[in-house]
Design brief:
This protein has 2 helices and 4 strands; from the N terminus they run E-E-H-E-E-H. The protein has 104 residues and is an alpha+beta fold.
Length: 104
């Protein structure tokens, strides 16, 4: 998995950086948010606890995904609804993995 920052801008009003990231995952499935989180955190030079992966779009027929990422200055700056939404999405991904292993 190769991560490349396409665009990045500072939003001082909301105390965050907004970035668009391109993820190349040739020969692999689309990575989950958890798999992307550490790579994106190191690319943006931010703590993984202050990053929200807002949207992931996988390009049709290509091993490439585009993600909209919000990197807040600290964890307290993240709006409560965004934090809860991210936790729900990551919890769902955690629950799906054991179910897939049982079926195979």
């Amino acid at each position: 998995m190769k991560i490349e920052i396409v665009s990045q801008k500072k939003n001082q009003l909301l105390a965050r950086e907004e970035a668009e990231v391109r993820i190349n995952h040739h020969g692999q499935r689309t990575p989950s948010r958890q798999e992307m989180l550490k790579g994106i955190a190191s690319a943006l030079k931010a703590s993984d606890s202050s990053i929200i992966i807002d949207r992931i779009i996988t390009l049709t027929g290509e091993p490439v995904s585009i993600a909209k990422v919000l990197a807040y200055e600290n964890k307290d700056a993240i709006p409560k609804y965004k934090l809860e939404k991210m936790k729900r999405r990551m919890k769902i991904a955690k629950e799906e993995k054991p179910a897939e292993a049982k079926e195979a």
